[in-house]
Amino acid sequence: MMISEVSLTQILAARDKRAAVQRGLLQEHGLPLLCFTMNIAGPIKRSHLIDMAFMYGESMIAAQGWPLRGCVRTWEPTGCEAVYAIDLPAAALKAAAVRMEEHAPVARLFDMDVLDENGQKLCRGAERACIVCGGGVAACARSRAHGLAQLQRQTDALLCGFAKDALASAACRALLREVHATPKPGLVDEANNGAHADMDIAAFERSAKALEPYFAAMAGAGLAGGQYDAVMGELRAIGKAAELAMLQATGGVNTHKGLIYSLGLLVGGMGYALRSDGGYREHARRLACVGLEEELTRARQAPQTHGEHIYAQSGVTGLRGEAAAGFPAAFAALSCRCEAFGALPDYEKDLCTLLHCMASLEDTNLLHRGGEAALRFVQAEASRICALPAAQRLDAAKALDEELIRRNLSPGGSADTLAACIFLEICEGMLPSSLHDSEAICGTA
Predict the structure, then answer these.
(1) Pick from 316, 403, 430: which is nearest to 365 by CA?
(2) Contact of 329 with 322, CB cutoff 8 Å
(3) Dihedrals φ, ψ of 184, to 5°?
(4) For residue 204, how many other CB atoms are within 10 A of its CB?
(5) Using CA atoms in the order 358, 361, 364, 366, what is the torsion angle rounded to 10 degrees?
(6) What integer is the mean pLDDT of 52-80?
(7) What is the pLDDT of residue 2?
(8) 315, 406 Cβ separation under 8 angstroms
């Protein structure tokens, strides 16, 4: 988006326009209004970070389940605004608005005014705290205790802290939703441990929880910006620390190493996009390409991991190739999830998404465990089940689960792609639409 300063004339014009919208909604509905804007000091009222915080505030309002009778939303250089006509007593609406303004640190930037059905603004009651010193905001404003630069720095800190936590929480939720998705042939789920004698759901849950602060740090590395090689260097260092935390949480079991890499790049790319132009997918791709040729050369000459041995033998690049190409498998899975499976119940949507991944992915985990024959068998079976009538898929998936356990085959790469797909789906509704440069959009704001 184009970030630009606004003039006092523009701000006053926006205020007049808001008042006209309020009058119109009051006249049309005769109900109390909730008027939501952002408290942003200085002449710049819009940025990706500000928009993301505003979207969060709107999601909080939507989650209340209030009887909404009318709404006018505007996204102008002077700021994001939403005015809601809600069929609730004004006093109850104001009390709820105050609770939302105090819900999280970033909500300190929310301005949720309530007008009664006569257009009278309700008093907040307790004075809000200053974002810089925590004292009464009115006294700080009168005395000009804090300069504009100080207010802007604190605003930026609140916005960045919110973005880091939100992206890390989304990554953690995706990991948990993937492991709890059931059934998943050959994989750990709520029914069994798949072809994994050393893993169970509890280990995946501990791992996801342990990784959350590291995903926040990766988002922070992206938000810090700079040259791609410097950001990627920071992501690698955080990733190594995250792997140690994972192993400590699981007693030495590798539950999420691949996802530390792929989700780390996506989270870092999203952080980078929130500070710059362009979509997060392209930023993540460019980060993945930093030092890639050198890494692939080393892997060919001296492979260290199972994936690198597969690459040295067959040329299948696995996660590195997927990331360097812009995560095509994850975005293709997201497109299918939205377009073909969107109306299905959650468990069936997860199963169909996983089967899509199993049918199409060159899964290096299957190549490692069973070679080319195992990969082609799983791809063919997944394709067959996908083509079955919906009523037959669940039983067929359970039968394939038993067969993969018998053969000790685990489509771990497909599971990672499912988790990445779920993460992207969560972020589609959380990030400003201008950051989504993919063809798979599930209804962004």
Answers:
(1) 316
(2) yes
(3) -135, 100
(4) 22
(5) 30
(6) 96
(7) 63
(8) no
**Which class for 391: exposed (0-12), middle (13-18), buried (19 or more C-beta within 10 A)?**
exposed
Note whether 76 and 16 are within 8 A (CB): no
Q: For residue 442, what pLDDT is reported? A: 47
Rounded CA-CA distance 107/381 in Å is 49
Q: Among 218, 426, 424, which residue's Cα sits nearest to residue 328?
A: 424
Please list the helix, strand and coil fractions of the chain in percent, rounded to the nearest 5, in that order. Answer: 65, 5, 30
* Residue 321 vs residues 184, 307, 316: alpha-carbon distances, Å: 25, 11, 8
Domain 8-126 fold: Alpha-Beta Plaits (3.30.70)
Q: 154-435 has which CATH code?
A: 1.10.4200.10
Instruction: Tell me the C-alpha distance between 215 and 217, whole Å.
Output: 5
Q: What is the rounded CA–CA span in Å between residue 364 and residue 257?
A: 14
pLDDT of res. 250: 97
- Condensed to tens digits (0 to 9), the pLDDT of residues 376-428 reads 999 999 999 999 998 999 999 999 999 999 999 999 999 999 999 999 999 99
Q: Residue type for 383, please?
A: S
- List the structure tokens of 239: 């990733």
Determine contact, residues 367/316, Cβ cutoff 8 Å.
Answer: yes
Closest CA to 172 of 274, 263, 285, 49: 263
User: What confidence tens digit (pLDDT) does each residue in 248-292 have?
Assistant: 999 999 999 999 999 999 999 999 999 998 899 999 999 999 988
Residue ranges covered by each domain of the chain: 8-126, 154-435
pLDDT tens, position by position, 219-229: 999 999 999 99
Residue with tokens 């199972």: 306
Q: Both tokens of residue 339?
A: 């377009």
